[in-house]
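Known limitations

Structure tokens in this collection are predictions and should be treated as such. Users comparing against experimental data should check residue numbering before alignment. To illustrate the layout, the record for Mannose-6-phosphate isomerase-like protein (Cupin superfamily) is reproduced below. The input appears on top and the generated tokens appear beneath it.
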Amino acid sequence: MSQFRARPPAVPSVLVDDAMVRITRWDFEPGADTGHHVHGLGYVVVPMTDCQFLIEEGPESRRVDLAKGAAYRRDAGVEHNVVNAGSEPMSFIEIEYKR
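Generated tokens:
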């Protein structure tokens, strides 16, 4: 796989990582992405800002807009790339549960 990145990377900051959970704050400038990844754990996302996501799932993509403070949960095994499709910086908290 190429090391070339067309988009700037989102910036993860691990806030807590213990036996129960891993809590990461993700900060994105406009156009930034997480890079393609697979979630090994189930998780909850809580937006800290209004978020305009472009979710790339294999050959398909979809737009998802979430308001600050809204939350959603997904099971382990999710495979995607998350992109800030908006014109403003965005951030969210990701809580991965280990038990």
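For this record: Residues 11-97 form a domain with the Jelly Rolls fold (CATH 2.60.120.10). The chain is about 0% helix and 55% strand. Please report discrepancies through the issue tracker.
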